[in-house]
Each structure stands twice: as structure tokens, then as C-alpha cells.
């Protein structure tokens, strides 16, 4: 469900829908119409409200911004949706590729969780994403990463793209005895805007199935005769 923070996307979709019916309305005109839908007098008032809630180019307290080509991205907090967001810079969109990404993340010591299982869950929303938006969870040991999942190999419940409403995603990993640290967050690859909210990292029972083995990963060698 759209909120006033999605006004520009709503205006774009409105203009496309009107054009399909042979009605030509400028983007500025559609912005004015969207403002009226939210009970406001004009786009300037709605734009000011969006700016007041978005808090652009900020990093949530206790979170860290990381990634590749960070100059191509902005981050902020959407107070109206209780969400953090990552967005590609409009002026760099033509140069942004799917190898570019930005993440908001946290790290902490693994000592209290060794021998246990952790589940990371969150709700994600994508706006004009060309690339992918997903959560990720990693456990590091003395020699580097020893457990990692970002859902990119999942054919179902994996990264989202294009325009989607809020959807839930989760990852379950074990924390081996040699673990030193745990790292997690969400990231946007490529272009667009990705939002995350309701993020929870919690210990779960030992019987909870691990994320490994889902999606394109198989339990063992399968269909080696190439049957259709």
C-alpha cells in the first residue's frame, strides 16, 4: 500500500495509466493530482512533507554504511514507515551497474551465540529497483567468513526488484564454536530505492531448519540424465 512517501512513483504510474487512455498530463501535473489525493493543496506542500520525513543522507544510529561505489548511493530513514532506505543517486543511474551496491549493516561479537542458531528477518520494499534488494547474514571466524547467506541463489523468497509492496524475508544460520563475529543487514544492488523495516535478529531453537538447501540448491546430485 502506497504512502505519501511514494508520491513520485505514484505520479509516474498515474501518467503511464493516463497515457494508455490517450490522456496527456505532464509529470508535474500528475504530482499535483497525487498531492490532492492526499488531501493537500499542491505538490509543494507534499514535497516539503516528504523532505521532512525522509531525512536524506543519514545513517541510522548504531548502523554502518558500506559497499561498492558508495558515492552512487544515498541512505536515510523514513519515519512515516519506520524504515531505513538506500537509494541510488539519480545523476549516476546511467553509470550504476549490478556490481555496485550499498548496505546498511551491524556487527557484534559471536561469543554469546556459539553453538546456536540465529534467524534474521525483515520486511522489504522496492521502488524502481533494477538489480536486487535483500537481507544478508554472515558469521566470521579466525580465517574469515564461515557461514553466509544473502538469498541470491533462491528461486523463491529471494531478492526483490522492480516495484513491490512490503514482503517478508528471513535467513537462518548456525553459529559454529569457532565463530568470532556476526554481521548482518540489507543491501541494494544496482539502481532504485530499497526500504527495510521490522528487522529482527534472534536466537531460534536448534530444530529450526537452516536456510541452506533452499532455492536452487539441491540436497544432492539430481537428474544427471538430463530428463525433462
Write a concise keyword list for the protein shown above:
228 residues; alpha+beta; Jelly Rolls; 2 domains; eight-stranded antiparallel beta sheet; 8 strands; 16% helix; Glyoxalase_8
Q: How would you characterize the overall build of this protein?
A:
The chain is an alpha+beta fold and 228 residues long. The relative contact order is 0.16. The longest helix is centred in the first third of the chain and has 14 residues, at 7-20. The protein is built from 3 helices and 8 strands. α1 (7-20) crosses α2. It folds into 2 domains: 1-53; 55-204, Jelly Rolls (Sandwich), CATH 2.60.120. The protein starts with 6 loop residues before the first helix and ends in a 24-residue tail after the last strand.
Secondary-structure blueprint:
Layout: H1 7-20, H2 27-37, H3 43-54, E1 64-68, E2 73-78, E3 83-88, E4 101-109, E5 117-141, E6 144-149, E7 160-174, E8 181-204
Antiparallel strand pairs: 1-4, 2-3, 3-8, 4-8, 5-6, 5-7, 5-8
Short structural summary:
16% of the residues lie in helices and 42% in strands. Strands 1, 2, 3, 4, 5, 6, 7 and 8 form an 8-stranded antiparallel β-sheet that branches.
Determine the number of helices (DSSP H or I, runs of at least 4 residues): 3
Structural class by secondary-structure content: alpha+beta
Unreliable parts: 213-217
CATH architecture of the largest domain: Sandwich
Rounded radius of gyration (Å): 20 Å
Q: How many beta-strand runs? A: 8
What is the overall shape? globular
| Strand composition percent | 35-45%
What is the typical, i.e. mean, pLDDT?
Answer: 89
Mind telling me the CATH superfamily name of the largest domain? Galactose-binding domain-like
Total domain modules: 2
Tell me roughly what share of residues is in helical segments. 10-25%
Q: Characterize the main sheet.
A: 8 strands, antiparallel
Q: What separation lies between the terminal Cα atoms?
A: 40 Å
Amino acid at each position: 500500500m502506497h504512502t505519501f512517501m511514494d508520491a513520485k512513483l505514484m505520479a509516474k504510474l498515474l501518467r503511464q495509466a493516463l497515457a494508455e487512455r490517450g490522456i496527456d498530463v505532464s509529470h508535474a501535473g500528475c504530482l499535483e493530482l497525487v498531492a490532492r489525493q492526499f488531501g493537500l493543496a499542491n505538490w509543494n506542500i507534499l514535497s516539503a512533507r516528504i523532505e521532512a520525513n525522509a531525512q536524506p543522507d543519514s545513517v541510522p544510529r548504531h548502523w554502518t554504511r558500506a559497499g561498492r561505489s558508495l558515492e552512487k548511493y544515498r541512505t536515510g530513514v523514513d519515519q512515516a514507515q519506520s524504515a531505513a532506505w538506500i537509494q541510488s543517486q539519480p545523476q549516476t543511474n546511467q553509470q550504476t551497474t549490478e556490481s555496485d551496491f550499498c548496505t546498511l549493516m551491524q556487527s557484534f561479537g559471536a561469543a554469546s551465540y556459539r553453538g546456536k542458531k540465529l534467524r534474521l528477518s525483515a520486511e522489504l520494499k522496492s521502488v524502481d529497483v533494477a538489480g536486487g534488494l535483500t537481507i544478508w547474514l554472515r558469521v566470521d571466524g579466525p580465517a574469515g567468513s564461515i557461514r553466509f547467506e544473502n538469498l541470491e541463489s533462491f528461486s523463491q523468497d529471494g531478492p526483490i526488484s522492480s516495484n513491490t509492496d512490503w514482503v517478508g524475508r528471513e535467513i537462518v544460520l548456525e553459529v559454529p564454536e569457532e565463530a568470532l563475529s556476526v554481521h548482518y543487514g540489507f543491501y541494494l544492488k544496482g539502481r532504485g530505492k530499497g526500504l527495510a523495516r521490522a528487522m529482527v535478529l534472534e536466537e531460534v531453537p536448534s530444530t529450526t531448519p537452516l536456510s541452506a538447501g533452499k532455492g536452487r540448491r539441491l540436497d544432492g546430485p539430481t537428474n544427471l540424465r538430463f530428463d525433462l
